[in-house]
Specification:
This protein has 52 residues and is mostly helical. The protein has helices spanning 5-26, 31-51. 83% of the residues lie in helices and 0% in strands. The chain is elongated, with a radius of gyration of 12 Å. Keywords: Membrane, Transmembrane, Transmembrane helix.
């Protein structure tokens, strides 16, 4: 099964952004920033999974 490189890139980006969310929570940054980053992570992971 040949996986789409775009899907892999979206999934990797989503995981990177999810790590950023965890880091931002630990640093106690504003909630709005964390929510926006979290939404970006979820959308990126979703796009990657849909392309598989």
């Amino acid at each position: 099964m040949d996986m789409d490189k775009g899907a892999i890139a979206f999934i990797a980006l989503g995981l990177f952004l999810a790590g950023g969310v965890i880091s931002f929570i630990k640093q106690k940054l504003p909630t709005g920033v964390i929510v926006l980053l979290g939404l970006g992570a979820v959308m990126s992971l979703g796009a990657g999974l849909m392309r598989l």
